[in-house]
Amino acid sequence: MGDIKVIQIRPPPGLKKEITAIINEFANKYKVYRDVNNKNPHITLLDLSYTHYACDYLLHKIGRMAGDFRPFKVRIDGIASFDSLDKEAGAIGKRHNYVIYLRVIDDGSILSLRKKLITGFGEGKLHYRKFVPHITISHKDLDKRGFERALREYKSFTFRHSFTVKGLYLHTYSGSSKPYVRYIKFGRCKSSKCRR
């Protein structure tokens, strides 16, 4: 597997702590631990892992684009899910990817931001992929029975919060070292000024 290179939105520290507690509680209840070690809940905007872009280039490019972005509000409202067929499993395997997530209510700002990033990186084919902004609680770890049970039990789960997005995070990971994260603030941000 190649390097991981993902552009993300992350909630502020207080909210991050609350979401991490939900992920931990869910993992303990359903004995699923794929996402429990993820201490940084996030909304994935663009996954560039399949590209050959170097980290410095990504920081420079995102930093230049960030000047055009303005802060906006994001709302989280409850739990939702999707079930997609894993095409790599083949026709016989028919393995399903059951995902449970915190629903992110988008007024169009996230989709607009993602579209600008896609255009800026020349990845136009990504426009046609379905995009659902979300914060993952459980990713592909449940079987059908566990997935249906979790949805029943979390049907009335209430979690409503909002936060202001003031910048983006570039998360990279090569597999042999610690993940490398850079924050790129909206407005006039040069890559040399972006904080670790």
What does this structure look like?
The protein has 196 residues and is an alpha+beta fold. It has a single domain (4-193), classed as Cyclic phosphodiesterase (Cyclic Phosphodiesterase, Chain: A, Alpha-Beta Complex), CATH 3.90.1140.10. The protein is 29% helix and 31% strand. It contains five helices and eight strands, in the order βαβαβαβαβαβββ. The protein has a four-stranded antiparallel β-sheet, with helices on one face. The chain has a four-stranded antiparallel β-sheet with strand order 5-4-3-6. It is globular and about 45 Å long.
List keywords for this structure.
four-stranded antiparallel β-sheet, Cyclic Phosphodiesterase, Chain: A, alpha+beta, single chain, globular, 31% strand, disordered C terminus, 196 residues
The gyration radius over C-alpha positions equals 17 Å
The count of strands amounts to: 8
Structural class, by secondary structure, is alpha+beta
CATH superfamily membership: Cyclic phosphodiesterase
Outline type: globular
Strand content: 25-35%
Side-by-side strand order of the widest sheet: 2-1-7-8
End-to-end separation in angstroms reads 25 Å
